[in-house]
Amino acid sequence: MSNDAATTAMPQQVDSPQPEPPAHGLGASLPAADTRAKSEGTFPYASDLWAEGLLWAALLRSPHPHARIVSVDTSAAREMPGVHAVITHEDVRGDGSYGRRIADRPVFAAETVRHHGEAIAAVAADHPDTARLAAAAIAVEYEVLEPVTDPEKAFAAEPLHPDGNLIRHIPLRYGDAEATGEVIVEGLYRIGRQDPAPIGAEAGLAVPRPDGGVELYVASTDPHTDRDLAAACFGLEPERVKVVVTGVPGATGDREDPGFQLPLGLLALRTGCPVKLTATREESFLGHAHRHPTLLRYRHHADAEGHLVKVEAQLLLDAGAYADSSSESLAAAVAFACGPYVVPHAHIEGWAVRTNNPPSGHVRGEGAMQVCAAYEAQMDKLAAKLGLDQTEIRLRNVLATGDILPTGQTVTCPAPVAELLHAVRDFPLPPLPKDSPEDDWLLPGGPEGAGEPGAVRRGVGYALGMVHMLGAEGTDEVSTATVRVQDGVATVICAAVETGSGFSTLARQIVQETLGVEDVRVAAVDTDQPPAGPAAHGRHTWVSGGAVERAAKMVRTQLLQPLAHKFGMSTELLQITDGKITSYDGVLSTTVTEAMDGKELWATAQCRPHPTEPLDESGQGDAFVGLAFCAIRAVVDVDIELGSVRVVEMAVAQDVGRILNPAQLATRIEAGVTQGVGAALTENLRTARGLIRHPDLTGYALPTALDAPDIRIVKLVEERDVVAPFGAKPASAAPVVTSPAAVASAVRAATGRPINRLPIRPQAAVAVPKP
Known about the structure:
Layout: H1 3-9, H2 35-40, E1 55-61, E2 67-73, H3 75-78, E3 83-87, E4 97-98, E5 105-106, E6 112-113, E7 119-125, H4 128-137, E8 139-144, E9 166-174, E10 183-191, E11 203-208, E12 214-218, H5 223-234, E13 241-245, H6 258-271, E14 275-278, H7 281-287, E15 294-302, E16 308-318, H8 326-335, E17 345-353, H9 368-386, H10 390-395, H11 417-426, E18 456-472, E19 479-486, E20 489-494, H12 503-515, E21 519-522, H13 539-567, E22 574-577, E23 580-583, E24 589-591, H14 592-596, E25 601-607, E26 624-639, E27 645-655, H15 662-681, E28 687-688, E29 691-692, E30 710-717, H16 733-751, E31 757-758
Parallel strand pairs: 1-14, 10-31, 12-13, 16-17, 20-21, 27-30
Antiparallel strand pairs: 1-7, 2-6, 2-8, 3-7, 4-5, 9-17, 10-15, 11-12, 11-14, 15-16, 18-26, 19-20, 19-25, 22-23, 23-24, 26-27, 28-29
Protein name: Xanthine dehydrogenase family protein molybdopterin-binding subunit
Organism: Streptomyces xantholiticus
InterPro entries: Ald_Oxase/Xan_DH_a/b (IPR000674), Ald_Oxase/Xan_DH_a/b_sf (IPR036856), Ald_Oxase/xanthine_DH-like (IPR016208), AldOxase/xan_DH_MoCoBD1 (IPR008274), AldOxase/xan_DH_MoCoBD2 (IPR046867), AldOxase/xan_DH_Mopterin-bd_sf (IPR037165)
């Protein structure tokens, strides 16, 4: 992955020379505050936590994907020297279940095991090895049951859960159900199970409090929701449970599985001692949520000129054993099933079902990524059948501002889809590799690969993707922030967790720009602060950033009002630039420090975007606050004899609303593209009859730096969304959604094969010899 390529390509988004970017404030490439600590190895990750009198926790997990629990005997574990506590479902308060959206997942399995790795019991001991040995000593008698692993069979199978196997069904009806086109193409597509593979170990520390409560020190991305879940399971009032966010190394979804946080707190309450748990990589694969494996059936109708007439689709999401965020993922999949195209008629059926497969949940671009791979494959099929260029078929159908989605919602935000596609189409193609020994590493398969240059075919493919911003379907999006200034230092207090999205940096930039104070610090996050919501869908850039901006503007008014009153003018006639306050006529000129005169100024503000509504029984409704779009051109080299694929280059054009931090934006886009390349080629958490095969980073192939292609950010469209603070849009989800479809399109172009499954298997990329 080329950082230089991204940053040098960014100026191509404009037609005229731009001024030098500012040194601070919005528009500056301000580095993240924790950059040095992370690069030097001094960043305090959750796995580094320590406390006096620390105990260690371990979980016993089910080896079966589906079984009835006949008995659990913990006596051997309790009698082991060094063991302080053993807990099971009997120690959980309330109904013993939790869930961020639907409380259907037990902390510990009580009667039935529903997926491989489900927690049965937990142990606290004075040494981690003792805890693991004690957990292994717990004797569980299982009656093994036949697992339901095929989501299509879940409809007729015996209920796996008291709530049934069907989590949600959305039948979207738009336009005339009887409409047909002159040209019809069909396809069946399968998307695999991608793991978020969070950087660093999932870990936490629970510390009991003197008032009978507990403090949880975890790398949470949604601390207030985690606190409320924990309080219900502990049988405590929420104010007696405190979640302190610590050591978040990065997240592309829900960073921590609450299923390991909850036993941690229960053990601390039971023992009266601090308890620490560090999950192994295998436990992470077994416990936390993955991207929904999806089965998609499509039929596209078009007229003879290639204009879309109707889209029919059936979408089936495998939720695994529990609901988690499957309802929201399904809504996104159904709403975006036609892609960023104008479709007069649509008939979409979407289902999310429970199985005995590993749990699915929130992963960046959920729902939208799966359907993008399918509808873009359909557009390639239409182009081939009509004899049109890949880009021409898309340009004849692209969405624009003012068009209507199949959900009936009008696109009111900027939607420069055609402009994005033109940008990647017109960007120069990379040169062909030289046929010489020193360039053997350029072959698919890498150095020492078995490929031959004569078997390599180059392919070029395109994809258009779209994602929604913030929560959907009536989610109450709100965030609160406080800005305090004293002695030349500004402090931002906001419970928005920095997951790598850059919120902490953005908060500093907002205050620098608004108040002219260069030294800005962002306070650590805990649940004593007002809630800011989860770190997903770019919401902290919009909602939490908006709250910080409003609070900073309130402090600005407090700062300027005395001066304005003294000189007989309004505060609007004063400006703050580089720490100096000046009036429009030059009469007033002073510094922010002098104007503060030792005072402490502070203000608290909220930001709440306009409300949305749930999709109705026909899949209609204004369900989304806003949309973001992306166009990607992929160039691949494929060894058509071996089926190995090398992604040579990804050209990206994206509508970003406004560039708030150029370097950070480029990094977010590059990371999103690379994650999408992994989903396209290597990442698939494989299962056999519900059992996870190779739950480690040896069996699960993440793309490395050698696998990452050159990423050329050829255009960033800055057309501000007027309803968003700063006019900015989220950056990383759109390329995650779009890049797998672009890679698949390029492999289709190179091989002539249909490529209807992600990740792309080598056998699928082997060209069939002509008779």
